[in-house]
Amino acid sequence: MSNISVVIPHFNNGLDIKRAYESVLKQTLLPAEIIIIDDCSLDKSILIDIVDNHSNTTVNLKVFFLEENSGPSFARNLGVKSAKSDYIAFLDSDDVWLPNKLEIQYKIMLDKNLKFSFHLYSAFPIKSFLNEHSLKKISLYALAKKQIICTPTVMLEKKFFQKFNEDVRYCEDFLCWVMTNNSNYFYMIDGVYSNGFKRQYGDSGLSANLKEMHYGFIKVCYILWLKGYWKWWCFMYFIVLEYVKYPLRLFKSKFR
């Protein structure tokens, strides 16, 4: 057992949530609890079935059924607030973890006394998992060139968690990670331990709207500057690079 709570928001994902849930139970190191927050889905039958058939007595299962749709930020905040463990691992309902994800990441968090870490992510399913990995120190400025922190890869110490901004619809996860980590460096486990089933940009979901993602990211940069997390030169660096990358994303999306 571990001192980890897994937080999974869910909204109309059908069988995907069952796949995500099962990937948690297949971990070589099990979490203390799994917290699923249903954001007022139209069909709750699969979640009810998960609750009725949850038989793992070592892993506590909590499922919250929201009475109105409140968005993923509200759902994740509720999940973290209700968590009993000292460490939080996030998973999206349409993603899965590889079997040794929690074991590797949790050990590194404890051994290195980290408050925040992430690992690599594959947008498509991968057939095998790695036992070899390294820990790298990634500068904040490197994330301006390529934002590689995907939600299902993050583990953090709960006492340092800064809530997801529920008024920000796009890039709210990046805002949360920067505020929670509150450092010029991030620790990355150089291995793929989570995968999805679609491209990061250009497919269904919020990331399909590249224009809104672009302006959402600029808004997040302003928030980080105004709240004092970034100096003005850091803010300008991110803004300039975003205006360079945005037309490139649009161009690439036309050929997918």
Question: How would you portray this structure in words?
Answer:
This protein has 256 residues and is of the alpha/beta class. Strands 1, 2, 3, 4, 5, 6, 7, 8 and 9 form a 9-stranded mixed beta sheet that branches. The chain has 2 domains: 4-197, Spore Coat Polysaccharide Biosynthesis Protein SpsA, Chain A; 200-256, no CATH class. It is built from 8 helices and 9 strands. It is globular. Helix 2 links the parallel strand 2 and strand 3 (60-65). Helix 6 runs parallel beside helix 7 (210-226). Helices cover 38% and strands 20% of the residues. The relative contact order is 0.14. Residues 201-206 have low confidence and may be disordered.
Count of extended strands: 9
Our Rg estimate from Cα atoms comes to 18 Å
Count every helix, treating DSSP H or I runs of 4 or more residues as helices: 8
Look at the structure and give the mean pLDDT.
92
Q: Report the β-strand fraction as a percent range.
A: 15-25%
Q: What is the C-level CATH assignment of the largest domain?
A: Alpha Beta
Order of helices and strands: EHEHEHEEHEEHEHEHH
Alpha-carbon distance between the two ends: 43 Å
Number of domains: 2
Low-confidence stretches: 201-206
Query: In this structure, how is the largest beta sheet organized?
Result: 9 strands, mixed
| CATH architecture call of the largest domain | Alpha-Beta Complex
CATH superfamily of the largest domain: Spore Coat Polysaccharide Biosynthesis Protein SpsA, Chain A
Secondary-structure-derived class = alpha/beta
**Which of globular, elongated, flat, extended, rod-shaped describes the shape?**
globular
